[in-house]
């Protein structure tokens, strides 16, 4: 078999495949017929490539065939859509169960709330310490912000603006906290310590100050969701970062890849919580509702999260296995 | 033969064909990233422009004034849009456009998994969220660059965590290996019939013919003389024969079935279909060449 014969005979097929890849086909051909033709030509070109390599055909031809096969392969083997059932299984069954045994979530929780409570106590007892932790300007700004009492709440207009701002600002912080956890699992801890201490000091300072009721009226409603989201996103970051250190015998890149399977659902849930917190912080917290309702929102959100964490995935292993087998 | 030291990764498809992907290094990827940033900024700018210029915001404000919303609400929506564009743009495009964002499409790049399979949503999410680390310190991209340099597949940290790589999909054109010189065909007919070059020689000849297009005649002679010298001795040809011409002739002999050669083919079928006078002798061809 002479190469030029081969080239001449098969060129027309290759050009047809190129045309199909570029979206050109006979105008009267149906899409199904085009698909079949593409698959047929792809198999033929695979065989051509094998032949070309076996017969040591000229280099440019082989390179061309490589590219053609690669492009057709990418066209035929495409990303699949959204696996809804799989996702439902992960978020309603696997994730709560994994969170219950997640030592990074526990560590993150302890570090954050430990710093928070410590800082709150310190700031409550000694405003000078609060100033050390937060800085004078921040505390002054807080005082100013909560000096005026919102009788009727802000306009919905301003609420919508602030909601957009919180969605953008807070969720970005959460996602960045997750990403920076990659730096050996340590980069998450300073963030937690800083955030915990800062927020705790603010809480303690305001609690001891004259505008305590205004402050707590504002922050109560969205507190649970937001603080939980911070803890969760940092926990996920710590997990992927720590996998680079404790590799369990795998290569570091492989250990990293394995840890992401458990980390990603946690991040997604934390993003969800951030968005919910932003919604509440934008519309409920600054509104003129009586404090009782805001506290009720806080309690409800806490109970919801607890229910998800403690009751989720408890349907029994049998229920979970059944879903997995069915899909 | 040893694998070529190049930025290519071999993938075995379900059809049991091994083909190679060409990896994309940091520079095309940086260009694609810049294009993506420009696209996102452009979208935000256009949205803002549309809202402001056409007074849409006043229309919406009137419509929503009943619900108490106005211009600030639109700003709020703008902030949400900015958030979505910052974090979800890459994820959505890579997951639903088979691994290509608009920037990557412009640069003919594609994200695939490390073994050539298409990318999943989880992988797209991971590599886009972790881009924040790759851009450190302070948005310089140094960490990502170091990671790409150290990885065998140009993987930045986000790619390592997600198990993906970025390949280049540029289109190579089918090249025609044609020799326009008629003297080479004449000489090819005159070569001894029992002379069959080995596969390695045939491959080298086709490489030479492909590359000689871009070379000056003097350079061609210089390169060709390395192989033409021994060939001349083997085939007992005159020493002043143009080496480039000789290699072209041998290439033609190897790669084209010359029906007019009049030689009996391997399967015992006579090569010539039309009765032609006998081919010119080697002396005639050579004297013809020397005269020109």
Secondary-structure element order of chain A, N to C? HHHHHHHHHHHHHH
pLDDT < 50 stretches of chain A? 318-327
Distance N to C terminus of chain A: 50 Å
Largest sheet of chain B: 4 strands, antiparallel
Mean pLDDT of chain A: 84
Q: Tell me the structural class of chain A.
A: mainly alpha
State the secondary-structure class of chain B: alpha+beta
* Beta-strand residue percentage of chain A: under 5%
Q: How many β-strand stretches of chain B?
A: 4
- Report on the biggest sheet of chain A: none
- Greatest contact pair? A-B, 63 and 70 residues
Structural commentary:
The complex is a heterodimer of chains A (327) and B (292). Chain A has helices at residues 3-21, 31-54, 59-76, 84-100, 103-125, 127-134, 136-145, 156-180, 188-208, 212-219, 223-242, 252-284, 291-311, 317-326. Chain A is mostly helical and 327 residues long. Chain A is elongated, with a radius of gyration of 29 Å. The model of chain A is unreliable at 318-327 (pLDDT under 50). Chain B has a 4-stranded antiparallel beta sheet. In chain B, helix 3 packs across helix 5 (121-129) and helix 10 packs across helix 12 (243-255). The longest helix of chain B has 28 residues, at 26-53. Chain B is elongated, with a radius of gyration of 31 Å. The chains are: A mainly alpha (327), B alpha+beta (292). Chains A and B meet through helix 1, helix 2, helix 3, helix 8 and helix 12 of A and strand 2, helix 3, helix 5, helix 6 and helix 8 of B.
């Amino acid at each position: 078999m002479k190469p030029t014969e081969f080239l001449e005979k098969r060129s027309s097929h290759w050009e047809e495949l190129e045309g199909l890849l570029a979206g050109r086909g006979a105008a009267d051909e149906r899409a199904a017929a085009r698909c079949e033709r593409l698959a047929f030509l792809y198999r033929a070109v695979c065989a051509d490539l094998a032949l070309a390599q076996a017969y040591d055909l000229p280099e440019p031809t082989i390179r061309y065939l490589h590219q053609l096969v690669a492009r057709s392969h990418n066209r035929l083997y495409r990303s699949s859509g959204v696996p809804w059932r799989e996702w439902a299984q992960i978020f309603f069954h696997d994730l709560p169960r994994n969170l219950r045994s997640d030592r990074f979530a526990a560590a993150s929780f302890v570090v954050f709330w430990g710093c928070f409570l410590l800082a709150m106590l310190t700031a409550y007892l000694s405003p000078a310490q609060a100033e050390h932790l937060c800085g004078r300007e921040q505390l002054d700004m807080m005082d100013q912000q909560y000096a005026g009492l919102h009788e009727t709440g802000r306009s919905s207009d301003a609420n919508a603006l602030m909601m957009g701002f919180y969605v953008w600002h807070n969720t970005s912080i959460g996602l960045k906290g997750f990403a920076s956890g990659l730096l050996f699992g340590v980069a998450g801890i300073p963030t937690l310590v800083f955030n915990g201490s800062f927020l705790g000091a603010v809480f303690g300072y305001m609690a001891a100050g004259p505008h305590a009721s205004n402050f707590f009226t504002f922050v109560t409603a969205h507190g649970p969701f937001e603080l939980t989201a911070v803890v969760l996103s940092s926990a996920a970051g710590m997990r992927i970062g720590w996998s680079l250190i404790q590799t369990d015998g795998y290569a570091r890149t492989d250990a990293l890849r394995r840890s992401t399977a458990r980390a990603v659902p946690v991040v997604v849930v934390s993003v969800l919580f951030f968005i919910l917190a932003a919604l509440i912080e934008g519309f409920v917290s600054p509104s003129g509702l009586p404090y009782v309702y805001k506290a009720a929102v806080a309690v409800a959100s806490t109970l919801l999260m607890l229910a998800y964490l403690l009751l989720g995935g408890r349907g029994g292993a049998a229920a979970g296995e059944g879903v997995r087998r069915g899909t | 033969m040893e694998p070529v030291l190049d930025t290519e990764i071999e993938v075995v498809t379900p059809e049991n064909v091994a083909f190679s992907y060409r990896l994309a290094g940091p520079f095309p990827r940086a260009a694609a990233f810049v294009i993506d940033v420009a696209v996102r900024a452009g979208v935000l700018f256009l949205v803002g422009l549309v809202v402001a210029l056409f007074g849409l915001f006043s229309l919406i404000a009137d419509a929503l004034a009943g619900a108490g919303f106005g211009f600030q609400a639109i700003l709020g929506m703008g902030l949400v849009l900015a958030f979505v564009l910052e974090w979800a743009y890459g994820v959505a495009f890579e997951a639903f456009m088979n691994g290509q964002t608009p920037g990557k499409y412009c640069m003919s790049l594609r994200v695939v998994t490390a073994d050539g399979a298409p990318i999943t949503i989880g992988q797209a999410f991971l590599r886009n969220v972790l881009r924040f680390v790759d851009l450190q310190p302070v948005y310089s991209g140094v960490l990502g660059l170091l990671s790409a340099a150290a990885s065998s597949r140009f993987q930045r940290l986000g790619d390592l965590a997600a198990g993906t790589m970025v390949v280049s999909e540029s289109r190579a054109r089918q090249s025609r290996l044609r020799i326009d010189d008629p003297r080479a065909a004449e000489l090819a007919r005159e070569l001894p019939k029992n002379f069959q070059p080995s596969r390695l020689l045939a491959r080298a000849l086709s490489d030479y013919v492909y590359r000689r297009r871009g070379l000056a005649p003097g350079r061609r002679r210089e390169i060709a003389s390395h192989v033409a010298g021994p060939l001349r001795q083997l085939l007992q040809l005159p020493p002043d024969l143009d080496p480039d011409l000789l290699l072209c002739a041998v290439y033609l002999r190897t790669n084209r079935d010359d029906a007019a050669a009049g030689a009996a083919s391997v399967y015992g079928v006579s090569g010539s279909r039309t009765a032609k006078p006998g081919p010119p002798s080697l002396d005639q061809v050579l004297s013809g060449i020397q005269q020109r």
